[in-house]
């Protein structure tokens, strides 16, 4: 009985066609190894031959989706995509496409890429020790003049709630607490516990300054409403993508401001972690080069010394505080935790 992960199906739908073709054919062995004599799983949502998409796989994929996604529609898309991809894989197997030279070359390239990425991730995980508070403070003091904010930084109390009535209740309670001068942090924590669909995100946004560009990417109406709020103001209930949102702007730090450490501490921690990873990567690659050269396995006739400094770090990114991208993480995607 073969089971093809729904989360992998979702991933396949996002990658370029050429890469998708390679991954699709790598998965072919897994799909063709079904055990027809085995009993079907107790809870499956689709079957093609001996291949099953299980309820647990669909649920796992749904949990990984961003907030605000219509889960009913997403569930149907996951199932339909799995059916389509599985049928295509079975047809590719019937045509024996994996034996074609060009397909073999693509599979081998993809396999090499996966293995290198897996090794790099393992090196990072084994050596990843975050910077100390002293290191963060020293970096901040040494680079403060270069850390001017390149966009507004925002702290906001935000609740995403399942129904309009409950959202109105939460908004009223927040307004009452603000009017009476009650401690808003403790009031908001009570509201998070009672109303929030995503309590972890609500707590994070209420305690940190976040670059404006990283806020509410999946909620355009929420984003528009937030842009109109002044400090302390509470929004009306905003319906966006099947949820109802209430928010209070705590503070907005304008672009160009010289930051306080609390505003950029997370960014500095990330930058120092990235720098440490790059240094570790360079050391590990250099060690591998030296070992290969010592075994007479490395020969670069047109480049000179086989002991040259390693290059070829993966793609770099940026952050919201510095124009310099020299510390961009080669392994990290943009931060989307607040979308």
UniProtKB/TrEMBL annotation:
Q: What InterPro entries has UniProt attached to this entry?
A: PPIase_dom_sf (IPR046357), PPIase_PpiC (IPR000297), PrsA_foldase (IPR050245), Trigger_fact/SurA_dom_sf (IPR027304)
Q: Where is the signal peptide?
A: none
Q: In which residue ranges is the amino acid composition biased (Low complexity)?
A: 328-339
What keywords were assigned to this record?
Answer: Isomerase, Rotamase
The PpiC domain, residue ranges: 151-251
UniProt-annotated stretches for the region Disordered: 295-339
Domain of life, per the record? Answer: Bacteria
**Keyword Acetylation attached:** no
Q: GO MF terms on file? A: peptidyl-prolyl cis-trans isomerase activity
Protein name listed in UniProt? PpiC domain-containing protein
């Amino acid at each position: 009985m073969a089971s093809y992960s729904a989360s992998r199906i979702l991933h396949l739908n996002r990658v370029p066609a050429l890469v998708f073709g390679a991954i699709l054919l790598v998965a072919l062995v897994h799909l063709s190894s079904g055990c027809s004599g085995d009993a079907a799983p107790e809870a499956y949502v689709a079957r093609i031959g001996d291949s099953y998409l299980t309820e647990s796989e669909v649920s796992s994929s749904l949990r990984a989706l961003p907030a605000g996604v219509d889960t009913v529609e997403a569930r149907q898309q996951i199932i339909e995509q799995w059916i389509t991809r599985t049928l295509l894989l079975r047809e590719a197997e019937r045509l024996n496409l994996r034996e074609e030279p060009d397909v073999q070359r693509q599979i081998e390239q993809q396999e090499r890429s996966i293995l290198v990425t897996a090794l790099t991730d393992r090196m990072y995980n084994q050596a990843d020790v975050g910077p100390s508070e002293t290191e963060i403070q020293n970096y901040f003091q040494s680079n403060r003049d270069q850390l001017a904010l390149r966009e507004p930084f925002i702290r906001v109390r935000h609740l995403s709630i399942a129904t309009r009535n409950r959202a109105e209740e939460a908004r009223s309670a927040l307004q009452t607490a603000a009017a009476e001068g009650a401690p808003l942090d403790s009031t908001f924590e009570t509201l998070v516990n009672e109303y929030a669909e995503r309590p972890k995100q609500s707590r994070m946004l209420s305690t940190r300054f976040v670059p404006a560009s990283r806020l509410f990417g999946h909620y355009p109406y929420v984003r528009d409403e937030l842009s109109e709020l002044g400090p302390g103001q509470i929004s009306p209930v905003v319906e966006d993508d099947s949820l109802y949102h209430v928010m209070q702007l705590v503070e907005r730090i304008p672009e160009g401001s010289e930051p306080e450490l609390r505003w950029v501490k997370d960014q500095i921690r990330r930058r120092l972690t990235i720098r440490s990873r790059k240094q570790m990567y360079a050391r590990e690659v250099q060690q591998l080069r030296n070992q290969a050269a010592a075994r007479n396995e490395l020969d670069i006739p047109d480049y000179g010394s086989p002991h040259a400094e390693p290059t070829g770090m993966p793609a770099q990114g940026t952050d919201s505080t510095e124009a310099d991208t020299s510390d961009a993480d080669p392994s990290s995607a943009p931060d989307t935790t607040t979308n």
